[in-house]
Specification:
The protein is α+β, with helices and mostly antiparallel strands and 419 residues long. It has helices at 35-42, 47-56, 94-99, 106-110, 131-138, 168-185, 191-208, 215-225, 237-256, 267-280, 287-308, 312-323, 326-329, 338-359, 366-378, 396-403, 410-418, and strands at residues 4-8, 31-33, 57-65, 72-77, 113-118, 121-126, 146-148, 152-154, 384-386, 392-394. The strands form three sheets. It has a five-stranded mixed sheet. Strands 2-4-3 form a three-stranded antiparallel sheet. The chain is globular. The model has no long low-confidence stretch (mean pLDDT 90).
Length: 419
């Protein structure tokens, strides 16, 4: 059966750059295999590869099924000093070179692609843990224009469902998604205000299931209420710098307590975080002076980004909204925290960018901006946990840090850090 697909304009431009990649995806995490792929590794006829498979490919104690799929997590490839043992000196996969793509695990063959399936339609995006996908997503003016079936440009309403014989709840979710996506595309509406509208609409979704005709009224009220970002204009320099201080400690504790190499944040991320910390936090100076200088540096950096890369954060959040479109249409609990994780995925790169901006005498390159994003998103799993119902929650230590800002709302805490 043919399935229509919706993709951002950047999607079909993606091609793995292989050995030229500055941050290989073959290190820094666990690589799982389904049973079919595991069986292939047990029958490798290349002596050296078979020897590595016998040593590093291990069955899990119990197969983990994913969403009732016939394929699940049956085995894993144990890392060798944090790197996949099948990665060659040429920075290419030795299994893929010898046997082709059919011998790759789904995790390896699909990364960094993301797919959401809606009946007879697929929504495809890319994640930002990859340098090449990050470049394609963030820096082009039209990268987040939507294309249907590789031909039709979607100008207005994005149909998540081709079949219009769907429930009122699905129709409502589709409408909320379109309102949020269109608002984030509106360059006249502040990003921070858009995030507030998105959050409020998600909170109202359950009530709107009973009164769907109220959606337009509620949206118009929120639009008017948040149409400018004056409500968040306050000096948050001290707040952000103290968050950086505690986040730096948290990241180092994570690595110091890690028992396995895949439990450690990547060296490249830690190096950039170390540079950011040492550049922005001068322990020899009074706190008030540190806050004042950081506030000025941050203001100048964000002004630079607005002038040189005006679409940067808008493209980021558009991609996050599209990638996580199920949070608008699903009634399940796993839709709850996607917006907060997306916000965290903007705050940490912003801090790393400010650190590099300060170090480079108030300038920064596109490569440095891209690096801040892909290093953060490659390591995002160390700040969150993926629960049994396929939801992200913040790790307790990070959650405790955020509660110091707003004890009752992680969204508010993150909003204050991003504002």
């Amino acid at each position: 059966m043919h399935m229509n697909q919706l993709v951002p304009k950047y999607y079909d431009k993606f091609k793995c750059i292989g050995s030229e990649c500055p941050e290989t995806c073959c290190q820094g995490w666990q690589i799982t295999l389904d049973k079919e792929t595991f069986d292939k590794y047990q029958k490798l006829d290349n002596f050296n590869l078979k020897k590595k498979a016998d040593r590093f490919v291990k069955k899990l104690p119990q197969e983990i099924k994913v969403n009732n799929s016939t394929k699940g997590f049956f085995a894993e490839i144990k890392m060798q000093e944090g790197t996949c043992p099948f990665l060659g000196s040429d920075k290419l996969c030795s299994v893929q070179k010898e046997y082709g793509n059919s011998y790759l695990s789904s995790a390896c063959s699909q990364y960094p692609r993301k797919i959401s399936v809606y009946n007879e339609k697929k929504i495809k995006t890319l994640g930002l843990g990859c340098p090449e996908s990050t470049r394609l997503i963030l820096f082009s003016e039209d990268s987040m224009n939507i294309i249907e079936d590789k031909f039709y440009s979607v100008k207005r309403f994005i149909k998540l469902y081709d079949d219009r014989d769907i429930s009122e709840i699905k129709i409502l979710g589709e409408k909320i998604f379109n309102l949020c996506f269109s608002l984030m595309k509106n360059k006249e509406f502040p990003i921070i205000s858009t995030l507030c509208v998105v959050k409020k609409l998600l909170e109202e979704k359950k009530n709107l299931e009973f009164f769907p005709e109220k959606l337009e009224t509620i949206y118009n009220y929120l639009f008017g209420h948040f149409k400018n970002d004056n409500f968040l204009q306050f000096d948050n320099a001290g707040l952000i710098l103290e968050f950086l201080r505690e986040f730096y400690v948290f990241a180092n504790e994570q690595n110091n307590n890690a028992k396995e190499s895949y439990e450690k944040l990547s060296k490249n991320f830690m190096n950039v975080l170390q540079t950011t910390f040492e550049t922005l936090i001068d322990k020899s100076r009074k706190l008030e002076d540190q806050y004042g200088e950081f506030g000025n540096t941050r203001t100048n950096c964000l002004k630079f980004l607005r002038n040189e890369y005006p679409q940067l954060f808008r493209n980021y959040f558009l991609n996050e909204i599209l990638s996580n479109c199920t949070m608008f249409t699903s009634r399940k609990a796993f839709a709850e925290n996607r917006l907060e994780v997306s916000l965290l995925g903007a705050i940490i790169p912003q801090l790393l960018i400010i650190g590099q901006f300060s170090k480079n005498n108030h300038t920064i390159s596109q490569d440095d901006i891209s690096r801040a994003f892909y290093l953060t998103h490659k390591n995002i799993g160390f700040f969150t946990k993926f629960t049994g119902n396929f939801e992200f929650t913040f790790r307790k230590r990070l959650s405790d840090i955020l509660k110091k800002i707003d004890e009752n709302s992680s969204f508010n805490s993150l909003l204050f850090l991003f504002a």
